[in-house]
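Page 42, continued from yesterday. The earlier attempt failed because a stray header line got pasted into the input along with the sequence. Redoing it now with the clean sequence only.
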Amino acid sequence: MSEIELVGGVNRVLRRGGAVIRPAGAWTPSVHRLLDHLQAKGFDGAPRALGISEDGGEETVSYLDGEVGHYPLPDYVRGDEALLAAARLLRGLHDASTDFPHRPDDVWMLRARQPVEVICHGDAATYNCVFRDGLPVAFFDFDTAHPGPRLWDAAYTAYRFVPLHAPGAGEGTLPLEDQARRLRMFADAYGLTAEERTQLTATVVARLQALVDFMTEQAAAGSAAFAGHLAEGHHLGYLADAEYVTEHAAQLAC
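This time it went through. Structure tokens are written below.
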């Protein structure tokens, strides 16, 4: 069967028929248990786990048909309906994970965050989302999944889908008033509590700083991909966005 290389971020990913073959990590068995759990709960917004190679070097998951929100983003990805659907999709993922059976030997790429309420996707962004008819229907690439609070994951997804970029960002941005409106829409569609809303912008900032810290750690540990991201200045964009959100936290309050 012929193989097709898929556009990805830090890994080489191949499609073979209805299956996707990706590099596996120490966390892959835990991620596959999560995917099995989500399937058993009836959540269809994630790929199915199909297996791990005998040497542990590759994983196979089901291929999800649709369009991926790669940059430069098509207009429909930035539509209000897509934003609302992304928030609801993330809420469905979180709700399905609340009773995930944790094990002492679970391994996650990213460290667990307290309080543990759900299993966070960790990178539920446009580029890890499948769209059909202009709307998000599934998230994929669960490598960064880890236990944590709902808000930790929701803040990053809101950052990516609103988006909460500072003016001049290469991914595109919006006027502040539109960002505030869309952030409120996301919070409403997800169902954030009043307390979570008061912490939302601060959590976006903390999440971006954690991302920069992770990139720096991985580059120092020898990751060529993350070293390349730092060399290209990706971290500077995240830090500029964090500063922007902090500066305009009052206007963005929802």
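Notes: The chain has two domains: 4-62, 67-252.
Reminder to self: strip header lines before submitting.
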